[in-house]
Structure formats: structure tokens, C-alpha cells
Amino acid sequence: MPSVTDPAIDYAFDRQHIWHPYTSMTQPIATQGVVSGQGCQLTLDDGRNVIDGTSSWWACVHGYGHPEIITAMQQQLHQLSHVMFGGITHKPAIDLSKALVNMTCPALTKVFLADSGSIAVEVALKMALQYWQGRNKPAKQKIMTVKRGYHGDTFAAMSVCDPDGGMHTMFGDNVTKQVFIPAPQTPFGFSPLQTSAEDANNTLDKADLDALIHAFATHHQQVAAIIIEPIMQGAGGMRFYSPAYLTKLRQLCDDYDVLLILDEIATGFGRTGKLFAYEHANIQPDLLCLGKALTGGYISLAATMCSDEVAKGISDSPAGVFMHGPTFMANPLACTAATASLQLINQQLWPTQIASIETQMIAELAEAIAFEQVKDVRVLGGVGVIEMHHTVNTAELQQAFIAQGVWIRPFSNLIYIMPPYIISTDELTQLTTAMKQVAASITAPQIHSDAEFISHG
Ligand code: PMP
């Protein structure tokens, strides 16, 4: 048996025995062995370094090997790595929850600490349903959401994922039928195709307005909550949409007694240029889901926050308590990592970092719009996207990117980056150059030979 420090990767064992996200065990995808990470660079098992353009799926915003997070975790590991949370509390959970309550909007006062983004979404949906039980509106059993959304892989989370995207067909009646609105259309952020920045930023397209009003007027009596990824739909197409959409949504939720759940698992902690994406619209949600960058990617942890009113409604429900309590709830090691990560966020370097990443990506990616196979180029905050006309071959392009010294993993027809906030100008130029070269090299539609399903944004 290899020791845990042996860098040799047993690819044959990996292929035969280990699931990867959205893969087949009979037609395994190509995997790349990674042995370490430092700053924005991952070191591969053959000794090459690649710049991580994905922050490991939005999570590693401070880069790898950050001394402050590591030291905090090491100390906590020696003190108390895990303890149950039933009838016990501890400083790591309290410190983290204080930070979250302080950083988020005043409406959000209560914190539920779970272990993954999907569970943060499950918790939010369950809270919304229990709330209306406590407010004597038991008919409010449905969740409303928009098409092209992605909220996770567990059953309730799947039920609010895009209904046409594969999540629903495999599991039949086990996936609850929810109420879907068309995906938001009113654009936001930079695109060389936009004619007027003002149009893009301030006015809600009539189609969006009509769809929202119709959905609330028709379904409000059965709808407990609406869940949406604010400002940016991630896995559903890396689509940015107008803050005006969220402003209208908040107003309709108030008018029709529907709770507003924002899924900021990807957008939270600065990624879109605001600490939380709801700040673009100056609104406050009733419930907020956080994950990914919460711990800077150092360990799995997620949070669901809610208002006093939601918490009171849950207490008034027949159960009297919130019906959820996982084993690793508020794990002290994870809470410590999150508090250390949020301390770095609170040092306020991220606004300048994200602003310069955005400016540089606009300057360097815009020209890709001229390439034959490119349909659109979009930039918002620390997210840069080249949308192709056709689906690309993920496995093939992954290799092309590694050959250029970068780690970028396209999906569907999208080549996109959301680099660590600490990325240097030179490293970012390497990423955007690779994106343009690879996009330019695609001259004909590619066949998507990879078994991996479009999922993680
Ligand atoms: N919501 C959004 C918006 C996400 O991007 C993701 C993860 N890609 C999730 C929920 C699910 O989080 P997790 O993978 O940690 O379960």
C-alpha cells in the first residue's frame, strides 16, 4: 500500500473504484492527479504547476496553503476537532456565527451550520415549509424557482434545479414537482454585445416583469418560498441578470406572503463585486444559503441564515422545533477555518482585488467575441465567461489548458474562470490568454464525449 505521503497516483484504482462528480463507473472520465497547492498554483503528479482558474469551484478564494487559515485549523485540531452539537456549544461556532450575523444584512439573525451547500439549501426549504405551518397557512407547500437554476444534488435541492436539465428525469415522482418561472433574461455585467450599459443595469425586460407578476398572482396560495441564485445563475449557464429583477422579486414576495430564499453558495463573500450579491439590489432576503468560500475551501461547511420572523414561525409550528440536526453540525474545525477565512475577507482587500480582476478580464477577454465559434463574452466581478456557439469537449479542452499551464474546466458551451482573489496580474493574463487561444482553436462544433453531466458551477 502506498503511504499517504506517497505522491504516486494509482490511476487504475481511481478509475475502477472511485466516483467523481457526475461520472459513470463503466466509462470513467480522464482525471488529473494533483499533489499539492500553494497560492494560486496546483502541482500535478508529474511535477508541472497549473494556475487554478476555478478557485476549486468558487471555494479557494484565498488560494491554497494560506498560513493564517492553516495555523488556526492546526490549533483547533489539537484542541477539539469534533464534538456533537446537541446540548453542547463551543467558541468556534459562536465566533463564526457572530461574524456571519455582523457581515450579512440586519434581517438575518439566526444561523444553522451544516456541512455542504446542498444541505444548506435543504435546510432553507424545510425552514420555509415549517414557517408557514406555524403561521396557519399549511397550503403553502410548494417552492417557486426559476428555470436554469442549480441548488445542489439532494432531493429537495434537485426539485428546484432546472426542470429540463436531467435532475428530474432520473428520479420520477421522488423529485417533488415545484413551480417554475422562466429564467431571468434582463442582462447585467459586461458583454461586448451590449448596446447600452444603462439598459443592461436598470430596466427590467417586460418578459421578466410579466413572468414574475403572473407566477406570483397565479401560485401564491400554494407557494411557501421562492429560491434563486441572486445576480448570477451558475451551473445553469453562467448567466448574469439585473438587480432590478431581485428588487421586483422582493416586492412581490412581500405583497404575496412568499419567503425569499437567496442561494449565495457561489456568489457569497465578494465574488460578484459586492460582499453578497443581494447588495447589488439593496434588498434583504428572509433566508440565505452560504457555502463554498465560507471556509476559503479549506474544509466543508455551509450555513443557512434566517430572520427572527422565520425562526418564530418555525417555533410556532406543530413540531415546535426545527426538524433538522446533522451529526457534523457546527463542526468546530470547520467553524474555525470559516472564521479565519472571514477574518481575511474582513480585512477588505477583496473589493480592490475583485475590481482589478474584473477590469483586467474585460480588457483581455472582450476581443474573443470576434472568434468564429464564440457567441458571447461576459464579465461580472471575479467571473469571466466565454460562451461558445456549441457544446465543447470538456476532457479535450482540459488537456489543452493543462498544456498551457492553467486549470480551467469548461462545461456545456462555456469556458469560464473565477480565480482566487489573490491572483496576480501575470497569472490572470495567463488564464485569459489560454481561454482565448483555446476558444480560437475551436473551429467546428465539438462532440461532448465526456460522461460528466453539466452540474457544478
Ligand atoms: N447552490 C449553488 C448555487 C451551487 O453553485 C452549488 C454547488 N455547485 C450548490 C448549491 C451545492 O453545493 P454543494 O456542492 O456544496 O452541495
TrEMBL record:
Which pathway features in its UniProt record?
A: Cofactor biosynthesis; biotin biosynthesis; 7,8-diaminononanoate from 8-amino-7-oxononanoate (SAM route): step 1/1
UniProt cross-references to InterPro entries, sorted A to Z: Aminotrans_3, Aminotrans_3_PPA_site, BioA, PyrdxlP-dep_Trfase, PyrdxlP-dep_Trfase_major, PyrdxlP-dep_Trfase_small
Residues at site: Participates in the substrate recognition with KAPA and in a stacking interaction with the adenine ring of SAM? 22
Q: Which residues does the annotation say bind pyridoxal 5'-phosphate?
A: 117-118, 263, 326-327
* EC numbers on record: 2.6.1.62
Which residues, renumbered to this chain, carry the PTM N6-(pyridoxal phosphate)lysine? 292
The answer on whether this UniProt entry bears the keyword Cytoplasm reads: yes
Q: What does this protein do?
A: Catalyzes the transfer of the alpha-amino group from S-adenosyl-L-methionine (SAM) to 7-keto-8-aminopelargonic acid (KAPA) to form 7,8-diaminopelargonic acid (DAPA). It is the only aminotransferase known to utilize SAM as an amino donor.
Q: Which HAMAP family match?
A: BioA
Q: Which PANTHER family match?
A: ADENOSYLMETHIONINE-8-AMINO-7-OXONONANOATE AMINOTRANSFERASE (PTHR42684)
Q: Quaternary structure?
A: Homodimer.
Q: Which family, according to the similarity comment?
A: Belongs to the class-III pyridoxal-phosphate-dependent aminotransferase family. BioA subfamily.
What is the protein's name according to its record?
Answer: Adenosylmethionine-8-amino-7-oxononanoate aminotransferase
Could you tell me which species this protein originates from? Answer: Shewanella aestuarii
